[in-house]
Amino acid sequence: MDRTQTFARLLELIEPFNKKGVALSETTSFANDLELDSLTVMDLVANIEDEWDINMPLNILPDLETIGQLADAVLKLKG
Amino acid sequence: MTDLLSKFDPVIAEHSGLIATGVRDPFGVVMDRVLSPTRAIINGRETILVGTYNYMGMTFDEDVIAAGHKALDAFGAGSTGSRVLNGTFAPHIGVEQALKDFYGTSSAIVFSTGYQANLGMVSTLAGKGDYIILDADSHASIYDGCKLGNAEVVRFRHNNTDDLDKRLGRLPAEAGKLVILEGVYSMLGDVAPLTELVAVAKKHGAMTLVDEAHAMGFFGPNGRGVYEEQGLEAEVDFVVGTFSKSVGTVGGFAVSNHPKFEILRLVCNPYRFTASLPPAVAATAEASIRKLMGAKAKRENLWAVSRKLHAGLKAAGFRMATETPESAIIAVLLPDQISTVAMWHQLIEQGIYCNMSRPPATPAGIYLLRCSLSAAHTLDDVDTIISRFIAARESLPTAQAA
Ligand SMILES: Cc1ncc(COP(=O)(O)O)c(C=O)c1O
Questions:
Q1: What whole-number distance in Å separates Cα of residue B156 and Cα of residue A55?
Q2: B364 at the A interface (CB within 8 A)?
Q3: Which CATH superfamily is domain A3-78 in?
Q4: B-chain residues near A50 (CB < 8 A)
Q5: What H or E segment, with its residue span, contains residue B83?
Q6: Do residues B211 and B335 both lie within one domain?
Q7: What is the DSSP string of B114-146?
Q8: Measuring from atom 7 of ligand 1, which residue has the nearest CA?
Q9: To the nearest whole angstrom, how far is the Cα of B166 from the nearest Cα of chain A?
Q10: CB-CB: which of A38, A55, A59 is closest to B170?
Q11: What is the pTM assigned to this prediction?
Q12: Cα distance from B332 to chain A (closest Cα, Å)?
């Protein structure tokens, strides 16, 4: 799977949750820039799981701070 | 020095903001006197309790109280020890036998609370390399059990069988899997389609645990819970429950027919590294559980008052969390925090106590006023509750009305 494509699709999935209209980049932080609460994170994760047909274990979420890290994790899980 | 409590400044600000609007603190209610399972003195006023999970109204049952007195006199105030050391007294064995009789299982393990029962079961059953697949709306004790253990944790959309199927299908076929469900979900009071969910779990070779905290005593022919009502006794591997709701005291438990179940006593930390229940509590629980076996009239009344409250609030134009009354939790949806707190405040001023619930405890960011009925409520109580809900709504500025 292509990193650029994955990242682009990820941005599309995140956009509906981007209530503050922050400019999204590799280093955008979920907690600090997007200020996503835990419920929103839950919805986003479920959408990502469906998009790529993967399971994202809850245990790995705390380590994924930025969109770039999330893209890497998706690629890794997709294998 | 970094003040470790400063991370809670946003919560402090939010809570003070709430109180500054002149409402009573929904999270600081004090019952100065408790008159019965359905009445207490709050703020000097006799209040109808409609938010206590005292489903079967057992807290003041004469036999239950007598059993407690007797055990308090005979065994003292506390056990001062773990169940696996000096903390197992005759009443602990007695209450476990009552659970085995109630559930018809070969094993029953009693924990000090339901919260700890979930912590212990979830963290111990699923270990490193295993998978836990849990409903997104699971109780905090289930989520915390996941954090305490070492399994990989996967969540599926609430009560969604296809979603569970899909997620199980993505896991390695040979891996150990535990699917965690609840019979009744306590926020909206909705019942799970356990038949379908458990069938999907079995199809993928997963074991199942069902938390029946909000169903004990009044679902299924023997009051065992939603899993019994849906005919799944041979399918479900582990059932978790609590003494803090229908049983009317405090404590938690897990029951199972698994032949190796008893070993959990030696390997489950939230069981063995904490003191056992006070013997008087174990004795009250035993007496209560034995009475719940034949509590047909209580059960019928609980359903009657639950149905009546749902119908009455719905007819009065409130937005209900479930289309029909599915359990003894009847929840009303409100648009936002301000209107919910205002409504809650009006109700407490009129002598009605219900629960105010908000995110993150609630799913999907919703605000709720939650009523839980008791077998000790009368149909007349329900009329009073409904009319006070209507009066509370009328006393709000129109912008805040539900
Ligand atoms: C679904 C569920 N499980 C477990 C618990 C914990 O029970 P306890 O009050 O005995 O700790 C509760 C109650 O808060 C609950 O709602």
A1: 10
A2: yes
A3: ACP-like (1.10.1200.10)
A4: 166
A5: none
A6: no
A7: HHHHHHHHHHHHS-TT-EEEEETT--HHHHHHH
A8: B114
A9: 8
A10: A55
A11: 0.94
A12: 21
- Rounded Cα gap, residues B256 and B376, in angstroms: 31
What residue ranges do the domains of chain A occupy?
3-78
Q: Is B171 on the interface with A (CB under 8 A)?
A: yes
Can you tell me which residue has the tokens 């209040």? B47
- Ligand 1 centroid to B252 CA: how many Å? 8
Between CA B277 and CA B82 the distance in angstroms is 9
Residue B3 lies in a domain: no
pLDDT tens, per residue, chain B with 402 residues: 999 999 999 999 989 988 888 888 889 999 999 999 999 999 999 999 999 999 999 999 999 999 999 999 999 999 999 999 999 999 999 999 999 999 999 999 999 999 999 999 999 999 999 999 999 999 999 999 999 999 999 999 999 999 999 999 999 999 999 999 999 999 999 999 999 999 999 999 999 999 999 999 999 999 999 999 999 999 999 999 999 999 999 999 999 999 999 999 999 999 999 999 999 999 999 999 999 999 999 999 999 999 999 999 999 999 999 999 999 999 999 999 889 999 999 999 999 999 999 887 888 789 999 999 999 999 999 999 999 999 999 988 765 555
The CATH code of the domain that includes B219 is: 3.40.640.10
Q: Are residues B14 and B131 in the same domain?
A: no
The domain tally of chain B equals: 2
Q: Which two tokens stand for residue B317?
A: 């134009």
B358 and B274 within one domain: no
